[in-house]
Amino acid sequence: MTTLIETIAGVRAASRLGQALNARAEILRLSEAAHDAVLLPREPGSLSHGLRAALAARMCRHVGDEALTAHYESYLAHASDLDLAALARPGGVCGDSLHDAMARHADLLTLSPREATRQDIAALKAAGVSEADIVRLSELAAFVNYQLRVLAGLRLLKEVEAR
Amino acid sequence: MSEVVHNFTATIPTWSPYVTPVELASATSEQLAAMKVTPSNKGVSPYVLTLAHDPESLAVRSPLFNLIMYGKDGLSPAERELGALSASVVNRCIYCAAVHASRFISYSGRNDVVEEIFADERDATLEARQQALFNFATKLSTTPIEATAEDARALGEAGLSELEQLDLVLSAAIFGWANRLMHTLGEPLARSEAP
Question: Smallest Cβ distance to B60: which of A34, A116, A121?
Answer without folding.
Answer: A34
